[in-house]
Design brief:
The protein is mainly alpha-helical. The chain has a single domain, classed as Ribonucleotide Reductase, subunit A (Orthogonal Bundle), CATH 1.10.620. The protein has helices at residues 7-17, 21-24, 40-43, 53-86, 94-125, 135-143, 147-169, 177-206, 210-246, 252-275, 278-287, 289-298. The chain starts with 6 loop residues before the first helix and ends in a 5-residue tail after the last helix. The structure holds fe (ii) ion (2 copies). One fe (ii) ion binds at residues 75, 107, 110, 186, 190. One fe (ii) ion binds next to helix 8.
């Protein structure tokens, strides 16, 4: 992909941004449970006309909890990946070393941030929300793939956070201000991660054979399939979370309708927004044009 990304400029931008978890949540910075947490473009629940407005709000917030949990989960494998990638290069280019360690430090901070928001959520929501996992099993599975396969999957994840904020959150005045600030501050730092991960992927590609590149795209599809499987399980858990939070017993046709809407919303949130992201696709095309075509062919099932 054509770009002007560099370790030095990503580091400089990152050092200018520098926020603390404590600036975003805790003390008088609380979640406002009278407002939605997720933009409708990701939540996709307004179509469920059998729900009251209050129930739609509850389901929106359940999806907010899922978003916090899902990013908590994926950051758990991004952090060791970046650390492992940086390790053999610690005595190389000073800007590269510092930018990669900064990247890792920010992901560790994000893990903490998502955890703190989840605690606040659990304190204020009124009932417990179940989530798939455990994170260690997910990390183990993802990191069992080649560095290039995992790097491409992480690149997908970095780009989706940008899209979520820019397309659904930035100009949205309805959302809870605290949740919005989480998404904004995450976006601010993820904007550097997209650049750094592009550079990481390019450096891994440099030493890769055609066979290793083919394998990496198969692994990207495998990791995507694994996430999709998790999404399907989570959609079922969301029904339980909803019934528990509202005390409403859904009929079987309502369950079916809600489950389909949740699955569609989650697929778009975590898979479709990456598989159709122009910059992600440009990186893929630069590695292997055929892989871009394959991803574009698969994408409509997740959009
Ligand atoms: Fe992050
Ligand atoms: Fe990131």
């Amino acid at each position: 992909m054509q770009h002007n990304y560099s370790y030095q400029s990503a580091l400089e931008t990152s050092e200018r941004i520098a926020w603390r978890v404590e600036d975003l949540i805790g003390g008088d910075k609380k979640l406002d449970f009278t407002r939605p947490f997720m933009p409708e473009s990701l939540a996709q629940i307004k179509q469920l006309s059998f729900l009251t407005r209050a129930e739609q709000l509850t389901l929106n917030q359940i999806r907010g909890h899922e978003y916090l949990s899902m990013f908590g989960l994926v950051e758990e494998f991004i952090l060791p990946y970046v650390v492992e990638h940086a390790r053999p290069q610690l005595s190389g280019d000073d800007y590269r070393v510092r930018a990669l360690l900064q990247f890792a430090g920010e992901e560790a901070k994000h893990i903490h941030l998502f955890k703190r928001f989840r605690q606040e959520f659990e304190n204020g929501f009124g009932s417990k929300c179940a989530f798939i996992g455990p994170a260690e099993d997910v990390s183990r599975f993802v990191l069992s793939h080649s560095p290039l396969g995992v790097g491409i999957a992480i690149l997908h994840i970095e780009w989706i956070t940008l899209r979520h904020y820019i397309e659904g959150v930035r100009d949205n005045q309805d959302l809870d201000p605290q949740f919005k600030s989480l998404l904004k501050n995450h976006w601010l730092e993820e904007s550097q991660h997209t650049k750094l991960d592009t550079l990481i992927v390019e450096s891994v590609v440099d030493g890769a054979s055609a066979k290793e590149i083919d394998q990496a795209f198969q692994e990207y599809a495998e990791i995507g399939g694994f996430i999709d499987n998790g999404i399907k399980q989570q959609a079922e858990l969301e029904l339980e979370n909803f019934e528990q939070a509202t005390g409403r017993k859904l009929s079987s046709s309502e369950r079916e309708e809600m489950s389909a809407a949740l699955l569609k919303g989650m697929r778009w949130t975590y898979l479709g927004t990456g598989m159709t992201h122009p910059n992600f696709l440009a990186s893929v095309e630069a590695i292997k044009p055929e892989a871009r075509k394959q991803i574009e062919e698969m994408a409509p099932a997740f959009c």
